[in-house]
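Shall we go through a protein fold together, starting from nothing but its sequence? Label the sequence line and the structure token line clearly, so we can match residues to local backbone shapes. Would you write everything just below, so we can both look at the same thing?
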Amino acid sequence: MRSRLLLLLFAISMLSCTQTHIKEHKEWGKYFDAYGLKNGCFILRDHTHDAIHFYNKERCIQRFLPASTFKIFNSLVALETAIAPDDELVIKWDGVRRRPEWDKDMDMREAFKVSCVPYYQEIARRIGQARMMHYLDTVKYGNMKMGGSIDNFWLNDSLQISADEQVGFLKKLYFNELPFSERSQRIVRSIMLQEDSTGYRLYYKTGTGRVGDSLTCWIVGFTEKIEHVKEPKESMNKSDVRNYPYFFAENFTVPASDTTKDWYKVRIDILHSILKDYGAM
């Protein structure tokens, strides 16, 4: 019943704009197959052409724990409530050794880059359950459920979100359409920037969450394809820079015991392959 309802919601969202073009790309499966992945999906929204492209529709509408992709939302709430005055808020290391890249004092920008869980758990505790719940409800983020403690609900499978919903959330973030200030959204977009090249800028957040004996691996974000369009002769040699945004979400599930591959690198390799295949990079 729940699966049919999600499928219906997906269909309604796809048909909400009569001009939207929807296309399935079964051939994108080869990028997952190359790593032996049988449970994966990818959804891409091409804003310029008002088109949605996907691989494995059923999984695109299935909800999973967001894991560290929730740091995007957590950062927005922290900035909006002034828990973090800006992205330079430093939280001191608690002295517990976890990972070398986490075991130090750091600000939000660095914590986001190294995906420091303790930093964002402390951010969530400072925000508090009432304010966090308010924004989950206001944004309509996934299933909007906070089970367990304030500093663990995005990791313990209480909060869940689909790849389709991630793309909708990111599109609103890009265009300042979320119920947060322009400043908060602008700062979060800036800390999401991971690759800045001549022809494109790539913004994303990864996430890995364990449920039972399985790991759910995410990468969500958007890319801007940059094109330099020459202006008329009277403007001399000036060129106009145009950005074409594409929004994406990818996830796959692997056995938690499978350490044969670097799954962090795998998800980025698949992302690059599909974006290049489509022409978004």
